Amino acid sequence: QVQLVESGGGSVQPGGSLRLSCTASGAILNIDFMSWYRQAPGKERELVASIYTGRSGNLADSVKGRFTISRDNAKNTVYLQMNSLEPEDTDVYYCHGAGAWGQGTLVTVSS
Question: Of 9, 27, 40, 96, whose CA is between 20 and 30 Å from 110?
Answer without folding.
Answer: 96
